[in-house]
Design a protein that fits this description.
The structure holds 2 protein chains of 2 kinds. By secondary structure, chain A is mainly alpha-helical. In chain A, about 75% of the residues lie in helices and about 0% in strands. Chain A has helices spanning about 5-25, 25-30, 30-50, 60-90, 95, 105-130, 140-165, 170-185, 195-205, 205-220, 225-250; strands spanning about 55, 55-60. Chain B contains 10 helices and 14 strands. The chains are: A mainly alpha, B alpha/beta. Bound molecules: adenosine-5'-triphosphate and magnesium ion.
Chain lengths: ~260, ~300
């Protein structure tokens, strides 16, 4: 297992990652709080009452878990992609590369930063939601487990994006063209039961659907999909992305010539 | 056991550029070693491979007996690196940068904090240690990287052009500092384009050109190869033309300045006797260029002719 000095190195990376995003909280914590407030105002308070009930819940209660999950996904991804790309771009990733730190620790360090940011933003957005509706938690264990695993998966995805990114454009392409559509089509704002059968099938290939619904299950006890399937998918993604990222770091892709 | 042992190192960059060809190098413990070479010779590439920043194509490297492939972490723990290019976060403060580097090497935060303050102080950065590092001057940034490289008190310090862009006074204090560290037993490997710096500080030297080591010897032996020196001689009173200076290759640059090449086996006394004969009065005399510089240029010249 890891030695004490390795754990000190890990602690240092995590501490640095957390202080990075808290120092620039105006860019990292505030924007999701504002945009999610707007979602609650517009979709929850203004349009929601006209939509009526969704699977037995008021519309705002139905979308609240989806909106919290959306901010967690976006922020864990954004944290790692910009932190790692920044470290690459300014070359201070070299500070870690010259030190006797196993690559797995570098990886876990960056991922932990993404998880903490995911949890923090998730907590802030949950607080915002409380101004608009009452939130109940159906199953705390499942809720936390889903948030944790989802933020791990998207932190890893952000890291892989950053490894391949060569310029600043490259770190916004995936979030804009892949992540955002998948989130919006992942059942944040509607139940896939509302879709024609064909689109239900298409949606079942969207991993975010499972995460959003598992989280909604944790909070409301209601889900479009099977919870076990959701956890299997999350586990599978975690393992695959972790292995891929570690392999890329070991080969030095994007960071060593 | 050598501090550093490089065997048959080759590097071809992904763009097919061959940066190193069969490089062999040995640096003994406690040495003050200069790695010299013109721009693009492969110095930074070599250093990058030693530190784990550049992937090698083939060959092996041992640092204090630890192979960088099989005992990667043990090897890295022995090395402190001051890179050629600035590579710290411009948003962090010098203190954070140095303390975090300590953390990466597994040093407890409380100890790292004390040491960081000590080294930042030694390098004259105490006043700046809480300011964002982008506000440091170029020379301060270099010193910050030296402090950072020392935080884990490495057995070997590698400096890639540490004095580039550093003013004369500061350069001298940096030399004193490096000599002091070397005397405490730290092996130092240095690259520089200031050859007088290498001549003054280093015991052993390697010259690399186009990816190949073309000379690897002690500074003393290298300098003893110098078979002639060129001197500039300033005269008190102007002369119209040069008299016959038997056996010396001289030319008049202007009526008050003369340039003379003196071969090693010739005595300078003879030259001055001739001056007396012709009533030429000398007011001062100096080397045309640094001695190492002449040798360096000769070596590069003959290397390019061999190609
Ligand atoms: N990342 C890279 N990709 C491709 N070629 C590179 C890369 N880095 C360096 N080179 C090439 O490798 C050769 C050696 O470069 P290197 O930086 O090692 O030289 P150097 O001796 O440190 O020069 P200088 O004194 O200018 O710092 C050069 O021809 C350079 O263009
Ligand atoms: Mg260089």
């Amino acid at each position: 297992m890891y030695t004490q000095s390795t754990l000190i190195a890990l602690y240092t990376i995590v501490r640095k990652e957390i202080s990075r995003f808290t120092r620039i909280w105006v860019q990292t914590i505030l924007p999701p709080a504002i945009s999610m407030t707007l979602y609650f105002v517009i979709f929850g308070s203004l349009i929601g009452p006209r939509i009526g009930m969704m699977n037995g819940f008021s519309y705002i209660d139905y979308i609240a878990p989806g909106i919290i999950m959306m901010s967690i996904i976006n922020n864990s991804y954004a944290n790692v992609v910009s932190s790692f790309f920044g470290a690459k771009f300014q070359h201070h990733i070299e500070e870690m590369l010259v030190a006797p730190i196993p690559n797995s620790i570098i990886l876990i360090g960056f991922i932990t930063g993404g998880i903490v940011r995911g949890f923090m933003v998730g907590a802030v957005v949950t607080l915002v939601a409380l101004f608009f509706t009452e939130l109940n938690i159906h199953n705390l264990g499942i809720t936390i487990a889903v948030v944790f695993m989802t933020s791990v998966v998207f932190s890893l995805a952000g890291l892989i994006n950053a490894i391949f990114a060569k310029k600043f454009d490259d770190i916004s392409i995936i979030p804009t063209f892949v992540l955002t559509p998948l989130i919006y089509l992942g059942g944040v704002f509607y139940s896939i039961d509302m879709l024609p059968e064909f689109w239900q099938t298409v949606s079942s290939f969207n991993p975010i659907l499972y995460m959003v619904n598992a989280f909604r299950y944790g909070m409301l006890g209601e889900s479009d999909i099977n919870i076990t399937t959701a956890f299997l998918i999350l586990t599978l993604f975690t393992c695959v992305l972790f292995t891929v990222s570690l392999h890329l770091l070991n080969k030095g892709v994007g960071i060593k010539h | 056991m050598s501090a550093l042992e490089i065997n048959n190192l080759n590097k071809v960059y992904p763009n097919k550029l061959t940066a190193l060809k069969n490089v062999d190098l040995k640096v003994s413990q406690g040495d003050f070693f200069a790695l010299l070479g013109p721009n693009g010779a492969g110095k930074s590439t070599t250093i990058g491979i030693i530190c784990g920043l550049v992937n090698k194509t083939s060959g092996s490297i041992k640092v204090f007996g630890h192979d960088i492939d099989s005992e990667n972490e043990a090897a890295k723990a022995c090395i402190g690196i001051v890179p050629q290019e600035i590579n710290f976060s411009q948003f962090e403060t010098p203190l954070d940068i140095v303390v975090n580097q300590g953390g990466y090497y597994g040093i407890k935060r409380s100890i790292a904090l004390q040491r960081a303050k000590k080294y930042l102080d030694k390098l004259g950065l105490t006043e700046k240690c809480h300011e964002p590092s982008r506000q440091l001057s170029g020379g301060m940034k270099r010193r910050l990287m030296i402090a950072r490289a020392l935080i884990h008190e490495p057995k070997m310090l590698i400096l890639d052009e540490p004095t580039a862009g550093v003013d004369v006074e500061l350069r001298r204090s940096m030399w004193d500092f490096l000599v002091e560290i070397n005397q405490q037993g730290v092996t130092i490997v240095l690259t520089t384009h200031y050859l007088e710096e290498a001549e003054m500080l280093c015991k052993n030297i390697a010259i690399i050109d186009q990816g190949k080591i073309i000379e690897n010897t002690s500074m003393k032996i290298l300098l003893s190869n110098l078979n002639k020196e060129t001197f500039i001689i300033d005269l008190i009173s102007p002369i119209e033309s040069l008299p016959e200076l038997n056996g010396f290759d001289a030319k008049l640059i202007d009526p008050l300045t003369m340039e003379v090449e003196i071969e090693r086996e010739k005595s300078i006394n003879d030259l001055f006797k001739l001056f007396s004969t012709y009533n030429i009065n000398v007011c001062s005399m100096r080397n045309k260029s640094n001695r190492l510089e002449e040798l360096f240029l000769d070596l590069l010249d003959s290397n390019s002719k061999e190609d």
